[in-house]
């Protein structure tokens, strides 16, 4: 059976795995974005607090993803839980770092002007600072998503959802007729999903970032 025949015979399962993979990454990115921006908002005004936030989240990336999942299995079991925790932790660094950089890069005169017309601190943050910091934050989200697309495949080790199961099945059956087809199908599926997500972020950027800021 060649690769195209394999895709034709397994397309339903591959589509299901692809949907689960995309869903897991999307949901974890939502959680990571909320946490990352919140951490950035709480720490960007202080040099040491911002440095601590970036250092703490960067330390997660020094832990091999397979090792982190293995450490989580005795604590939370197999399946979705270790997948969500691992992907969320790995997705934090680019978002936290870019949120801090973006918020610190807002022109102080604009913040002072907003303060001068009577805006409260939360209003200045929501209506002035965060919108101006959105372009670097979106860049951080894009970087995190690309990382998580690959890391999510490792979650199959803990019976997690997604295309990693196809890859692991192929690796486990190396030498069989469809082993290479399984690995190739899972890998190409992840690449396609990563490209689709990135295209969606480009569209979001065009819709949410004013042309003057993009320039």
Automatic annotation (TrEMBL):
The keyword Transferase does not apply. InterPro entries: ABC_transp_perm/SBD, MetI-like, MetI-like_sf. Its main location: membrane. It is found in: Cell membrane; Membrane. SUPFAM superfamilies: MetI-like. It is a multi-pass membrane protein. The chain crosses the membrane at residues 24-44, 51-73, 79-96, 179-204. Residues 18-201 form the ABC transmembrane type-1 domain. It comes from the Bacteria. Keywords: Membrane, Transmembrane, Transmembrane helix, Transport. Pfam families: BPD_transp_1 (PF00528). The keyword Membrane applies. Belongs to the binding-protein-dependent transport system permease family. This is ABC transporter permease. It comes from Streptomyces melanogenes.
């Amino acid at each position: 059976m060649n690769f195209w025949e394999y895709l034709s015979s397994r397309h339903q399962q591959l589509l299901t795995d692809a949907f689960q993979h995309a869903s897991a990454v999307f949901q974890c990115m939502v959680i990571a974005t909320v946490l990352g921006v919140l951490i950035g908002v709480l720490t960007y005004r202080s040099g040491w607090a911002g440095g601590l936030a970036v250092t703490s989240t960067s330390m997660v990336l020094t832990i091999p993803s397979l090792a982190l999942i293995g450490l989580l299995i005795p604590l939370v079991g197999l399946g979705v839980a270790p997948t969500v925790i691992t992907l969320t932790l790995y997705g934090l660094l680019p978002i936290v770092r870019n949120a801090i950089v973006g918020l610190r890069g807002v022109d102080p005169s604009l913040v002072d002007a907003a303060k001068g017309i009577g805006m409260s601190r939360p209003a200045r943050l929501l209506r002035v600072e965060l919108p101006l910091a959105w372009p670097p934050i979106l860049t951080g989200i894009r970087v995190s998503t690309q990382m998580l697309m690959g890391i999510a495949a490792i979650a199959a080790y803990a019976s997690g959802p997604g295309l990693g199961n196809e890859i692991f099945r192929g690796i486990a059956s190396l030498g069989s007729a469809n082993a290479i087809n399984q690995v190739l199908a899972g890998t190409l599926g992840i690449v396609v999903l990563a490209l689709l997500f990135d295209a969606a972020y480009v569209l979001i950027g065009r819709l949410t970032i004013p042309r003057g800021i993009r320039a």
